[in-house]
Structures are given as structure tokens and as C-alpha cells.
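Structure first, sequence second, as always.
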């Protein structure tokens, strides 16, 4: 076998700029193409870029300087989340045994959950190494904190024993956590083992309805304005989802590939049978925790990468209660009615007449609205081809959801005259792609670049919507402080918030500035200022 030698060193600085802002794992290689270091990153471009900053080598220790001198090239693999990056990092370190890695040389990084169902009183315990001892193992789990909270939840929900060994102790027999649905002292070993079976089914992800129950409790707490309880339940749900989420087993043939926007767009074109790769894509997501705040996000990708300048966020205005279908219809209607309005303003401003041209006979063609036989969608698409504008009809619309969300969005597009715009729905649970007029969903391979591209834009829309939702919830919690202020009615609270914008700005205002607000006198202004200062 010939040895691979790189005669010329790769331009590492230039290659860093090709890295995505995504979680993943990077491998450093030397001039003989050997893997000498493996690392993980929450953001690949930021993390790898730090290695090649001019000042890094000057401040680095001896080992790091030696590593940087040896790096001839690097490669990377993107994953879905930071915990997956941790697991893949360990998998690759065990495979390559890199010279400069000292972690992951054993199995002490990942936690497992072990339960020996052959014991009379089985207990759920943590383990580091999976042994051939006929016990049942769950995991590995990259997020140890979330796992510990999950075990605490199981102890209270199912009344199962954790840690320790043997029969329940006197303290455990009295401990309230083990009294659901009845005390340990009132049941026998056979009855207890039924609890263990239920807990194992939950840990194996076979009872997702329990997480659904917690989410319902979270929404109910938010409706009652019990935001502290809602936040606790949200944290619990997040921990359970982290633990229950299946972790991929990375093998030599299943390592995720690097992002290639051009290839991914071409793959998406072929998969969806589009006329051309979708240069501009827009994706919608609905986020709600209660009927108090229902919000939506629209994120834009251009040429396969995020176009943050064209992100939009919406507060749902016309929908009463939690109705994802109606909310999706509203946000799609508002988005593209606005786009068409801006297109019309371009046309009326002379853009269409100026952008008109000659027909095949050389005669001047007038494309002004009163002479046009195009519908609004055709006009918008033609104008974007002639003179690309900041706002345009996308080449592909994606909605987060299945048939219901897709149907709602399609009806609004038809009402707006945008019949020909490609649109799909991406259902998260099984990554099914729904298309208008097709009864069965399209399923793409897990390693498909087209699917990874759709997942990236869907996940970005979800992140953006959740961020906006959390911002509104924080504002709501802050605004609720004024509910306890003497003399401040709901009407006066809205007047103050409208005048100052937020409670934070109201805190900074002087008594004179508060008193100058219409409907707020000097005396009440002093009370408000004193109340906020005390809190």
C-alpha cells in the first residue's frame, strides 16, 4: 500500500470559511494524512477557526503548538445536536486513536442505565461499561444532567428503586417518592416488578404520551399565569426529551457527510421534481405554549445557506385558542400578501414599464398593470427574474407539519393567485415530506443531502420561533409585576407599557416622566416609582 503524502499544505484559513455554523466533529490530519486529533464543536466554524488565529500559536502551550505545526489538512462531519457531536467524537477517537487526544481512551465519558430484571427488587443504576451479565442496559446518554433528572422523574412517577442494592431499606419504605401508586411496604416483589416493566418501557421510548401529559400541564399552568410552574415543567420536558431521544450508532458507513449546498440543492431539485434547484426557500413554523402567546417564524435560505436579513417573526392575531392549521393559514396569508403588495408598488412606480422590452417584432411592450393579463403570482415571479429585489416569491415554500398545515397554506396561496409556487410540508416525527395532490408522503434516505438541507431550514425556523416565544413570555412575566402595584388598573398598565415600551424602561423613568403620561397623576407616578424601586 502506498503512503499518501500531501506535497502542499492546504490553505487552512480559506478552508475554515467553508465550514458551517453547525454542531459537528472535526479531524485534524498530518502530512501523511493520518488523523492526529479529533474534536467536537457546537459551532464548527467558530471552534476550528480559533486554532488558526495568528495569536493562538503564540499563546498556546507546547502540546498545542506541536499540534498546530503538524496539521496539514482537516475534515469535518456535521450532526444534528451537540450531544450527538459528543458521541461521534468518542466513536472516532476510539477508531483512530489520535496522537494528541487524551480523552475517550476508555469508556468513562458516557452514562448507561442498568437494571437487572432477574433481581427480586430490581433497581435502576448508572453504569459506565456495558457488561455481558444478562442485565438490561439503556443508553449511552451524552447529557448526564438530563439523565439524572429523568431518573428522578421515574422514581416519582413509577415508584421504582434507584441506586443501591437489594431489597428496599427502612428509609425507602417510608420515602414518599416510592409510594406511587401505593407504598413499597404494601406491595410484594411481583407487584413491584410490574412497576419496573412500565419504567423500562418509558426509558425505551415506548410511552410518549407521558411527555404529552406534562406538556398539557405546562400549557395549563401558563394559562393560569403560573409561569414558574410552567417553566419547571418545560425544563422537565426538555430533560426527558434529551434522554428519550434515540442516539445514532455511528459506524464506518453511517458517518454524516459534510454540507455541500450546491449538491444538496440539486438533490432537492431531483427529489421534488422541480424545474431548477430552489435558490430561495422560505420555511414557516408555529410556536405556542398557551393561547396567550401564539407566534410564528419565517426563515429564508438562499443558495442553501441561511439568509438572516430576510427572517420574519409574527404574532398570530386572528386565531382564537391553539389552532396550528388556522395559525399557519394566517401567517402564510400575511407574508405573501405583503410580498405581492410590494411587487405592486414596484410596478406602479414604473418598474414594470421600465423593465418591459420588445417583443419578437421589436415593438415596445407595455407591462403596466392596466394592460397586463398576468395574475399577481406570475407578475411577482417575472419581476424577480428580470430584476431581483430584496423581497420576492420564493422558489420553494416549506411548512413545518403534515397534511393539515400544508392544506391550510395551499388554500391561502391559491386565494393570492400563487398557484404555481412549489410548496411542501415536512412532518417532524418521521421526516415525511407531504406534497399537494399526493396522497402518500415522500421519504428520503437519512443520509440524503436533500433531507439534511430541509432539516436545517426546518430546525432554524423552529429555533427562531421558540426564541421569539421565549422573549414574549419574559416580557409577559415582567409586565405582570404591575398587576400588584396599588392604583394601577389593567387600563393604566397598558397605558404605561404603551408609553415606555417595557417595565425595564419604566423603572428608569423619573417621577416627572411617569406623571407626564396621560391618565397618570403625580401621586400615582410616585407610587409606581416607589413600587418598582422596592422590587
Amino acid at each position: 500500500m502506498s503512503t499518501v503524502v500531501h506535497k502542499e499544505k492546504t490553505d487552512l484559513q480559506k478552508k475554515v470559511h467553508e465550514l458551517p455554523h453547525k454542531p459537528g466533529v472535526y479531524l485534524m490530519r498530518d502530512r501523511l494524512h493520518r488523523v492526529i486529533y479529533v474534536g467536537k464543536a457546537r459551532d464548527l466554524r467558530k471552534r476550528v477557526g480559533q486554532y488558526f488565529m495568528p495569536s493562538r500559536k503564540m499563546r498556546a502551550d507546547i502540546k498545542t503548538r506541536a499540534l498546530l505545526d503538524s496539521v496539514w489538512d482537516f475534515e469535518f462531519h456535521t450532526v444534528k445536536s451537540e450531544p450527538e457531536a459528543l458521541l461521534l467524537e468518542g466513536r472516532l477517537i476510539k477508531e483512530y486513536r489520535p496522537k494528541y487526544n487524551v480523552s475517550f481512551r476508555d469508556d468513562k465519558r458516557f452514562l448507561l442505565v442498568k437494571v437487572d430484571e432477574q433481581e427480586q427488587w430490581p433497581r435502576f443504576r448508572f453504569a459506565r461499561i456495558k457488561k455481558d451479565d444478562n442485565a438490561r442496559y439503556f443508553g449511552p446518554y451524552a447529557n448526564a444532567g438530563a439523565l439524572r433528572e429523568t431518573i428522578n422523574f421515574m422514581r416519582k412517577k413509577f415508584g421504582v428503586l434507584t441506586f443501591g442494592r437489594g431489597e428496599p431499606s427502612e428509609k425507602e419504605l417510608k420515602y414518599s417518592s416510592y409510594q406511587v401508586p401505593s407504598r413499597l411496604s404494601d406491595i410484594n416483589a411481583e407487584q413491584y416488578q410490574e412497576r419496573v416493566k412500565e419504567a423500562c418501557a418509558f426509558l425505551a421510548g415506548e410511552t410518549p404520551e407521558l411527555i404529552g401529559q406534562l406538556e398539557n400541564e405546562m400549557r395549563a399552568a401558563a394559562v393560569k399565569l403560573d409561569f414558574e410552574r410552567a417553566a419547571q415543567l418545560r425544563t422537565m420536558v426538555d430533560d426527558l426529551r434529551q434522554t428519550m431521544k434515540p442516539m445514532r450508532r455511528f459506524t464506518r458507513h453511517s458517518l454524516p457527510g459534510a454540507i455541500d449546498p450546491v449538491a444538496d440543492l440539486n438533490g432537492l431539485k431531483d427529489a421534488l421534481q422541480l424545474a431548477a434547484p430552489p435558490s430561495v426557500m422560505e420555511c414557516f413554523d408555529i410556536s405556542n405554549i398557551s393561547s396567550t402567546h401564539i407566534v410564528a417564524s419565517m426563515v429564508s435560505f438562499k443558495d442553501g445557506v441561511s439568509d438572516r436579513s430576510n427572517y420574519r417573526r409574527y404574532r398570530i392575531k386572528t386565531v382564537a385558542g391553539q389552532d396550528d392549521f388556522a395559525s399557519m393559514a394566517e401567517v402564510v396569508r400575511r407574508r405573501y400578501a405583503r410580498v405581492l403588495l410590494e411587487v405592486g408598488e414596484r410596478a406602479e412606480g414604473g418598474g414594470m414599464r421600465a423593465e418591459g422590452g420588445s417583443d419578437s417584432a421589436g415593438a415596445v411592450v407595455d407591462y403596466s398593470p392596466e394592460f397586463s393579463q398576468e395574475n399577481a403570482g406570475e407578475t411577482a415571479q417575472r419581476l424577480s427574474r428580470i430584476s431581483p429585489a430584496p423581497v420576492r416569491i420564493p422558489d420553494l415554500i416549506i411548512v413545518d407539519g403534515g397534511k393539515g398545515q400544508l392544506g391550510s397554506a395551499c388554500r391561502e396561496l391559491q386565494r393570492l393567485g400563487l398557484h404555481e409556487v412549489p410548496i411542501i410540508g415536512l412532518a417532524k416525527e418521521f421526516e415525511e415530506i407531504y406534497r399537494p395532490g399526493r396522497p402518500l408522503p415522500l421519504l428520503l434516505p437519512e443520509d440524503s443531502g436533500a433531507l439534511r438541507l430541509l432539516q436545517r431550514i426546518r430546525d432554524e425556523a423552529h429555533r427562531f420561533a421558540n426564541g421569539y416565544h421565549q422573549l414574549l413570555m419574559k416580557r409577559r412575566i415582567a409586565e405582570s409585576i404591575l398587576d400588584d402595584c396599588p392604583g394601577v388598573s389593567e387600563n393604566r398598565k397598558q397605558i404605561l407599557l404603551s408609553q415606555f415600551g417595557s417595565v425595564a424602561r419604566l423603572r428608569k423613568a423619573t417621577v416627572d416622566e411617569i406623571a407626564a403620561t396621560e391618565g397618570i397623576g403625580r401621586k400615582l407616578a410616585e407610587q409606581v416609582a416607589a413600587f418598582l424601586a422596592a422590587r
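Margin note: The first helix runs from residue 12 to 16.
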